[in-house]
Write a structure and sequence with these properties.
Elements (H helix, E strand, L loop, with lengths): L5 H27 L2 H7 L3 H8 L18
Helix pairs in contact: 1-3
Length: 70
Amino acid sequence: MPRFNLTQLRYQISYQLRQYRHYRRSRRQLLSLDDRLLEDIGINRTQALKEGHKAFWKHTPLDERPYENR
């Protein structure tokens, strides 16, 4: 039976909280971009709003690339 490691659990929780803060901050920044900057990164306002209003605990894995088809 594997041993329960509090230190490892603490690091995992800390890492996950940092990820959540990163998602939240990135989405707020995405919502603040103007149309010219959104065009520079290859998405439109509708896509930015959809991504920006997602809950902070949801994320899109990098291998899915939702905005690849422009």
